[in-house]
Amino acid sequence: MSIDAEINRAARGLSKTLIAIRRDIHQHPELGFQERRTSQKIVETLKSVGLDRVQSGVAKTGVVGVLQGGPARNATHSVAGGRAAHTVALRADMDALPITEANQVSYRSRTPGIMHACGHDGHVTMCLGAAMILKKIQARIPGAVKFIFQPAEELLDGARAMIRAGALNDPDVEAIFGMHISPRMPYGVVGASAGPIMAAADRFAITVYGKGGHGAQPENCTDPILIAHQIYSGIQGIERNLAGPDVRVISVCSLHAGTAFNVIPGSAEMMGTVRTYDVRVQDEIIRRMRAVVKGISGAHGGRCDLVYRKGLPVTCNDARLVEIVHAAGRALKAPVGDNVLTMGAEDFALYTQKVPGAFMELGVQKCPAQPSYHHCRFDFDDRILSMGAAMMARCALLFLEQGGLGR
Ligand SMILES: [Zn+2]
Ligand SMILES: [Zn+2]
To answer: Which ligand is nearest to the CA of 154?
Structure first.
C-alpha cells in the first residue's frame, strides 16, 4: 500500500476517536493561558500515542511533543545514531473565547460564558490526529516532527510566549505548518497560497487636549470634541488618499468625551486599529496619522497625544511550503485552493518571522449563511477532522521526504 493510501486509511480509522476528542474539548473550553484541562488531555493523548518526548507547562499551559522518525534516507541529513537532522513543526492553538454558546448541540459548552467559537478545539484535535497517523508510520519518517500546542492565540500572546520558551528549539524547527478551520471556504477544501495571507494588526490611541468650559461660551474654550471630530475625518481621509492596490483598513472604534450636556470637556479620547499587508503602507499610515493629528489639533489651538503600537506582523506563507501543501492535497486527493485573504490577524505570524511557515485553512462551510468566527452559533461538521489530520501529517512527511528546504 502506498504511504498516501496508508495515511488516508489511518485517518478514516481515527475519525470517531477524533470527533470524540473534539467534542470533549468543546464541552470544556478554557480561555488563554488557562487551558489546564485541555493541556492535560493533550499530554495524556500524546503519551498514549507513544511520542518520544512530551513536554508540558511550556509558556504556562503549552505542550510540545516530538516524534523521532526512522533513520534519514539521505545520509547527509542524518547525525550520529541515525537520528534525523531535519525537524518540522505542526502547530495548533488551544484557547476559547469569552462567549456564551447559543448552539443546542449535545456537546455544547458546559462552561457558562466561554466557548470554542474559533475552531481551536478542532485545531488541537487535528494536530493530535496527525501525531496518531505519523506514529503508525514512524519508521518511515526521515526526520523529526514536533507538535506545538500553544495557549492564548486569541490574546495574541501565546505564540510569542512559546517561542520565548524555546518551542522552536531542541530540536531546531526548520519549517512550521498551521491549520485553521474556515467557515468562509467550501466544506472539505484546503486553502493555502504563497505570500501575505493575514494582515498586520496595530492599535492606536489618541488623546485630544483642549480647554473646557461652559457649553454656552465656546468662544472661551478649545473644544476637544470639535478637534476629535475633524481628526476622525482626517484619519479616514488617509486611507482614501494612499496609493497602491493593496488592501488596508483604518478604523476608529472608540470615541469618548464629556459627561454633561452643558459642559465643554477638557479632553477627548479615541482608539482604533490599523490593518495592513505591506510594511511601507503601514509606515506611511503612521507618518500621515501623526501629521493629521498634529495639524488639526494645532489649527484649533489644542494639543494631541498619539500612541501607536505595532502589533502582530503580517502572516506570510513561504512559497516552497505552500507547494508542499498543494502536493499533499494531490497525494491525499483533497481539493486545495487559495487562502481567503482577510484583514484579521494571527499570531502564527510570529513563527513565520523565525522560520518559514505555511498557514492553511480547512473549509467547513456548508451554506453561506453559516455563522462565522467568534459567533455564539459557530460550529462545524466535525467529520472533517480526520481529513485535516491527514493533511497536517502529509505536509510534515512531505517536507521531511524532500530533505527539508535544502540546507
Ligand atoms: Zn479567533
Ligand atoms: Zn482562531
So the answer is: 1
- Identify the CATH number of the domain in which residue 308 sits: 3.30.70.360
Is the predicted pLDDT of residue 83 greater than 50, yes or no? no
Strands 263-264 and 213-214: antiparallel
Residue 74: the pLDDT is 43
The 10s digit of each residue's pLDDT in 158-170 is 999 999 999 999 9
Residue 352 counted as domain residue: yes
Element (H, E) at 162: helix 158-164
Q: Measure 300 CA to ligand 1 centroid, in angstroms.
A: 41
- Residue 171 and residue 263 in one domain: no
User: What's the pLDDT score for residue 76?
Assistant: 43
Q: How far is the CA of 30 from the centre of ligand 1 (A)?
A: 13
Residue 244 pLDDT more than 50?
yes
The bound ligand whose nearest atom lies closest to the alpha carbon of 373 is: 1
Asked if residue 247 and residue 346 are part of one domain, the reply reads: no
Question: What integer best gives the mean pLDDT of the chain?
Answer: 94
Beta-carbon neighbours within 5 Å of ion ligand 1: 118
Q: 356 preceded by cis ω (within 30°)?
A: no
Identify whether residues 190 and 209 lie together within a single domain: no
State the angle between helix axes of 385-401 and 3-27 in degrees (0 to 180), rounded to the nearest 10: 130
- Ligand 1 centroid to Cα of residue 156, in Å, is 10
Cα-Cα-Cα-Cα torsion 331, 314, 67, 131, nearest 10 degrees, comes to -60
> With 80 as the cut, is the pLDDT of residue 245 above it?
no
Which ligand places an atom closest to the C-alpha of 155? 1
The verdict on 374 and 323 lying in the same domain is yes
- Give the Cα separation of 115 and 145 in Å (integer): 30
